[in-house]
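stage 2 :: seqdesign
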């Protein structure tokens, strides 16, 4: 069944919206007690849990003043996932479009800055010093004009995410898996160079799409002299 999102009544409370959506998702199941609360999260995540006959839904306060159809779309997403049902595409699209609004993204970034804590290890690692590496790459590729963000090694060792740039905290973090003397310097430099490019080519939002690596970004990435060699080393990890 596809939800009729446009039929949402403006005077429904979030609890009533979630109860109605539950009846539509699970028409043969008795609707449990429902408790909805808006919480001061540091991100846009929302949570749902069914415990002792009560459906507990915790929604980010970023959506405190969101239109009712957006709350309804989120209810469809959360409740469908709870019962392992397919999430209607219309709900996903509506929710993503709302989160991609410029004013909502601005508020989300502010919340992350105010509430979030960036956990990272010092930039001087066992094998590589990220400050020294950043400064050298800055001179080689950016004329020394790039302002140094906060730098550090990840708290956890990850092979799937070798590095990331966090614009909310203006921080570049590299995975500890790279902080080893047997990892060639050129591979670590390439990951750092890649993350530095995010400062030059920020994320673009195009309707439903969030484009992290634009065509311009990919082209700039190839300016790294050992581009193919570094990628081959990292792929072997």
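stage 2 :: out
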């Amino acid at each position: 069944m596809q939800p009729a999102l446009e039929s949402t009544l403006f005077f429904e409370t979030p609890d009533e919206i979630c109860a109605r959506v539950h009846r539509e998702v699970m028409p043969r199941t008795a609707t449990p007690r429902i408790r909805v609360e808006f919480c001061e999260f540091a991100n846009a995540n929302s949570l749902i849990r069914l415990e002792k006959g009560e459906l507990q839904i915790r929604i980010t306060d970023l959506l405190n003043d969101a239109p009712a159809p957006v709350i309804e779309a989120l209810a469809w997403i959360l409740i469908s996932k709870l019962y392992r049902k397919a999430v209607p595409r219309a709900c996903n699209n509506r929710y993503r479009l709302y989160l991609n609004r410029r004013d909502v993204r601005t508020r989300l970034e502010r919340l992350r800055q105010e509430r979030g804590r960036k956990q990272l290890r010092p930039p001087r690692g066992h094998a590589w010093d990220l400050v020294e590496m950043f400064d050298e790459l800055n001179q080689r590729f950016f004329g020394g004009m790039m302002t140094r963000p906060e730098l550090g090694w990840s708290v956890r060792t990850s092979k799937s995410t070798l590095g990331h740039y966090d614009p909310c905290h203006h921080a570049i973090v590299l995975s500890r898996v790279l902080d080893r003397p047997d990892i060639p310097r050129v591979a670590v430099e390439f990951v750092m160079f890649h993350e530095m490019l995010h400062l030059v080519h920020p994320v673009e939002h195009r309707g439903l799409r969030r484009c992290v690596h634009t065509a311009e970004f990919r082209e700039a990435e190839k300016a790294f002299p050992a581009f193919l060699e570094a990628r081959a080393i990292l792929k072997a990890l």
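stage 3 :: structure notes
- The two ends are 44 Å apart (CA to CA).
- Strands lie at 33-39, 47-51, 54-60, 150-153, 163-166, 171-174, 204-206, 209-211.
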